Amino acid sequence: MTASEQVFRVMLRMEIKPGVEAEFERVWQEVGDSVTGHPANLGQWLSRSIDEEGVYYIVSDWIDEPRFREFETSEGHLVHRRKLHPYRSGGSMVTMHVVAHLPGRVAA
Question: CATH code at 89?
């Protein structure tokens, strides 16, 4: 499998201001279709850290990096970011290619 055939994964670490976590989760769900509605998006997940107060991880999978980069600079993404920005106090982004997947017993 070449790099262009690999799933492109984006992982965001978001630090959310204290006291607005529930509101952040609600708004994230409301605006999520601006990501999952993109034809190159394979899905996204929101996870809350159990080790760090107010920290969330968002993982989204894309058919390839160029299509993600196209989305990243789109007006739809900018609107999405503006709606979530008031809840953030910090964060970071990591990008990667999925090189292997081993399905669990339940998936088989």
Answer: 3.30.70.100
Q: Which residue has the tokens 């996870």?
A: 47
Long-range own/partner contacts, residues 73-79 (CB < 8 A, 24 or more apart): 76/34, 76/38, 77/34, 77/35, 79/31, 79/34
φ/ψ of residue 89, rounded to 5 = -115, -10
Chain segment 60-75, per-residue pLDDT in tens = 999 999 999 999 999 8
Q: Is residue 103 part of a domain?
A: no
Question: Taking the mean position of all CA atoms in its chain, how far away is CA 66?
Answer: 16
Q: Pick the more confident residue, 2 or 90.
A: 90
Range(s) of the domain holding residue 65:
3-98
The tally of domains found in the chain comes to: 1
Residues 6+ apart with CB under 8 A from 9: 59, 60, 61, 62, 95, 96, 97, 98
Q: Is 8 inside a domain boundary?
A: yes
Q: What is the pTM of this model?
A: 0.88
